[in-house]
Amino acid sequence: MAIEFRVLKESTDCSARIGELKTPHGVIETPVFMPVGTKATVKTMTPEEVRDLGAQIILSNTYHLYLRPGHKLIEEAGGLHKFMNWHKPILTDSGGFQVFSLSDLRKITEDGVEFRSHIDGSTHFLSPEKSIEIQNSLGADIIMCFDECVPYPAEYEYVKKSMERTTRWAKRCKDYHQNWDRQALFGIIQGGMYKDLREKSVKDILDIGFPGYAIGGLSVGEPIDIMCDMLDFTAPMLPKDKPRYLMGVGSPDYLFEAVIRGIDMADCVLPTRIARNGTVMTSQGKLTIRNAKYKNDFSSLDPECDCYTCTNYTRAYIRHLFNVNEILGARLATIHNLYFLIKLMENIREAIKEDRLMEYREEFYKKYGYI
After folding, report:
1. In terms of C-beta distances under 8 Å and separation of at least 24 residues, what long-range contacts does 165-172 make, across chains too?
2. Annotated catalytic residue: which of 93, 141, 147, 264?
3. Is 232 a catalytic residue?
4. What does the pLDDT look like over 200-232, one tens digit per residue?
5. Does the annotation count 267 as an active-site position?
6. pTM, 2 dp
C-alpha cells in the first residue's frame, strides 16, 4: 500500500489524536492543514516558500488540471511533483466538487457527468474511471474517489439517490485504480445532513474498503453546530487505524471543532482567498488591512506572529500595497495566513500531546473573538 498510518496519541478529554501518515513523498504529522494549490500552484507563492512555512502536504485539483494544461502533459513532465517542483506529499481531489458546483453547466447520469468548461464552453465527460485516469497521470500520493457533492439544503430523496450513486461510483473508482503501491485512494462519505444516510454511506464505503476515508458534503453553508453534530455522529463510525479527512475546512474554529472530533486532515482555499482580498487572521481575530485606521499603524500584522511578513513589514506598508494594487500585498498576506494556520495546527498537536486541547481551544477562542 502507498501509505501507512498510525495513531501516536489520543486525547484524554475529546476524540482528538496525533498520528503519523507515511507517504511516498514523506511523513506527515497529523492533524494537518493542507494548503490548496488548485492549478499546481498555491496562489502568489513559490513551492519553496510554501515548504518553508512548514506545509507538509498540499492539495491540487483534478478538474482544473484536466482542463489546463492537461493530465497527459503533466504525466509527460514526470508527474505533478516534478511539474511544479514540489517534493513533499500531494493530495488531488476528484474534480467532483467543481463539476457539481457548475450546476447550470452539467448533466448527471449513472455513467458520470457531462459538463461544459467554464473556460471556453467546450463539452467534457467526467466519469469515475476518467477521474481516476487523470489522477493516476498526475501522480499524487493521495487521490480521491469521484463523488457527487450535494448542496445545502437539499431534500432527503435527492440526497439519498446522490449518496447511493456515490457508493456505486466509489466501487468503480476502486476497480479502475492501478497504482496502489504509490497512490492511496480514499473513499468519501456522503449523506448530507441526514444521519441515517450518513450511517448507510459509512457502512457501504467501508464495505468497499479504502486506506483512508474523507467526510464530504460538510462546510457547504450549513451552520457550524450542524456540521459539528454530523461529525459527532459520523467520525466515530470510521476506523481508528485509518486517516480521516474533512474536506473544505479552513477557518480556525472549524479546524478546532474537526480535530476535537477525531479528524486528521483538512484543506481549504480560505486563507489564500481572503489574503488576496486584504483580510488576515491574527491572534486577536480577523483584520481587514485595507481599512483607513491602519494608515499610520507601524506595528506588525500580529505581534504574536514570527512569520516573514510580521518580522519584516508593518500594517501601514501592507495597507499601502493593497491600496495601490501591488501584488506584493497579496503575497505578504498569503504568507501570513498560511503560516498562521500551519502554526495553529502545530500548536494543536502540542496541546493534544499535553492533554490540554480543550483548554487551548478556550484560550484561543477568547482571544480570537469567537466567545
Report:
1. 165/110, 166/190, 166/201, 167/201, 167/204, 167/205, 167/208, 168/110, 169/128, 169/145, 170/128, 170/145, 170/205, 170/208, 170/210, 171/208, 172/127, 172/128, 172/129
2. 93
3. no
4. 999 999 999 999 999 999 999 999 999 999 999
5. yes
6. 0.97
